[in-house]
Design a protein that fits this description.
This protein has about 325 residues and is of the alpha/beta class. Helix content is about 40%, strand content about 15%. The strands form four sheets. The protein has a five-stranded parallel β-sheet with strand order 1-2-3-4-9, with helices on both faces.
Length: about 325
């Protein structure tokens, strides 16, 4: 699909990944239409139908959602389930009815089974239940895979589902309880440096392994899949490059020029020891390889936070 000249609607375009998707689409010569949250409530079918009438999308990218950390998921599971389920199913259904040419939706790696073997392959999606704390959110998002396949088989509707991995970068959420490991770590080291603390204590042993993808790379892969992928088989979007938490922490400390001592509190839990994503399908089917190394991505994110920490989501 050539996106040039297409009316592309980007739901969630003002969120973290949405901002990077805007840039990636601009590089394709596309200026996406971004529905304002105050104008279109994606949980309301009437609003979604009005969106289709007024914006007339030919391509719709669904990057919106109610998201939060483990604490928020524990306290508001019904809200996380309802809002994400209704947004996804309503948007896809109404997009099909409106004759949208391509529908793209994103789900999280947390939708995979909690005990999935590593690196996680796409075919593991239905081999077990997601992590309990965020299962309401994860299962709601996972239903888009079922719906996408059903509408393709019955109606020939071209919808795809992509699974971004551990995405990080500028515009991320730096809230200490609700954010992911990289933004939380950057904020903690930044504030320790500002306070002149002589010791920075990291939790656990540093042994767990993760793989991360810079948001700009993830956005470019999503736009590429929008153009190339025509299947309801999901695709992992990640780096496929394992990194220990120890390496991550040491790199952030070096890049922030923190001069205090690093200590590890091994009395704190490590969590899951290995969580990475198999990206063979991304490489083979999309021909995509991330361009931004973890060190360079961290450097960009740290520089952005240092400049914008007063206005960043914290």
């Amino acid at each position: 699909m050539d996106l040039t000249g297409k009316r592309v609607v980007l739901c969630g375009g003002n969120g973290f990944l949405g901002r990077h998707l805007q840039d990636a689409l601009n590089q394709e010569g596309v200026t996406p239409l971004i529905p304002a949250r105050s104008e279109f409530d994606l949980r309301e079918q009437a609003d979604v139908r009005r969106l289709m009438r007024e914006l007339r999308p030919q391509v719709l990218i669904h990057a919106a959602g109610l998201v939060g950390g483990i604490l928020a998921n524990r306290e508001r599971p019904a809200e996380f389930f309802h809002d994400n389920l209704v947004m996804g199913t309503t948007l896809l259904h109404e997009a099909w009815k409106a004759g949208v040419e391509k529908f793209v939706c994103l789900i999280g790696g947390c939708s995979y089974p909690a005990q999935a073997p590593n690196p996680i392959k796409e075919e593991y999606l239905w081999d077990g239940y997601p992590q309990g704390e965020s299962a309401a959110y994860s299962v709601a998002k996972k239903m888009l895979v079922v719906q996408s396949d059903a509408y393709r088989r019955q109606h020939g509707f071209d919808s795809i589902v992509l699974v971004p991995g551990n995405v990080y970068g500028p515009h991320d959420n730096f809230h200490l309880e609700n954010s992911h490991v990289i933004p939380a770590l950057i904020r903690k080291v930044f504030e320790a440096q500002q306070r002149g603390e002589r010791v920075f204590t990291a939790w656990g042993s540093g042994a767990p392994v993760r793989d991360f993808i810079y948001a700009g790379d993830a956005a470019r892969a999503i736009v590429l899949a929008t153009r190339k992928w025509r299947s309801s088989e999901i695709i992992n979007i990640s780096s496929g490059r394992p990194t220990t938490i120890r390496e991550l922490v040491e790199t952030v400390i070096r890049l922030t020029r923190y001069e205090g001592e690093l200590r590890w509190d091994t009395s704190k839990p490590d969590g899951q020891m290995y969580k990475g994503f198999d990206v063979t399908r991304m490489r083979n089917e999309l021909g995509f390889e991330p361009q931004v190394s973890l060190e360079e991505g961290l450097r960009r994110t740290i520089a952005w936070y240092a400049e914008h920490h007063g206005e960043a989501r914290r």
